Amino acid sequence: MEEALAGALRSNPAYDDRAQELAARISSLLANPDAFDPTPLPWLVALSNQASERMTQAAFVNELKHNLSTCEQALDDYFRDETAVNRLETVEPLLAETSAVLTVLEYGDAAQACRAISKQVDDIIRARVTLNDAGRARLADGLSSVGFFVETMLQSASRARRFRFDAQRGMLFEDTSIPETPEEVVSEADSNALLRSFADEASAGVEQAADASHEAAPEAAVAAAGLTAAAGLAAAQGCR
What we know:
This protein is mostly helical. It contains nine helices and two strands; from the N terminus they run H-H-H-H-H-H-H-E-E-H-H.
């Protein structure tokens, strides 16, 4: 039901026909259970696959949102007290993990934005660069733009594909000149294979980024574990 509402099925010309078809199947099952044909309806299978993919992506998005929230809190602490540079040590590994996941998902511009923000943070930690008001705004805006992008991922994958990284401003923006592409409906077999591959690649990418996390900060290590668990969920979804 949730997937039906999210996909706005009522706007589908076949909505009434499908509703009648489903009602007829239910009536047939109630009237004569022994003679009921359990063969699933193709469009219902496709809808189920879409729901599975959304659940998998939702698990990753929630972990990414947690990562970014931790980064925002660390930056806020630093902006309030520039002597608290050690708080920024949690940011780099978390952004590395986020970048790894976005790379696997083929959101290259978003991954590039994470790396650019990480570079700014590294300059503060290693080179002891002091940011002026403009520099602070650039860093905060860059991180906020990634957060907005992650929110958009869950709402519309096609819309998220329109985000581009502006190196001059150091942030992501939605390029509305790029047309949104229709969501592709894949078969059950292709969907399962895609999810298994996605889970394996995402898990590997996160584990590589997490090597530094365990040394840098406990918070980053916890976030890495969360993303790895989300990859496990993707694998479980794909094996159904």
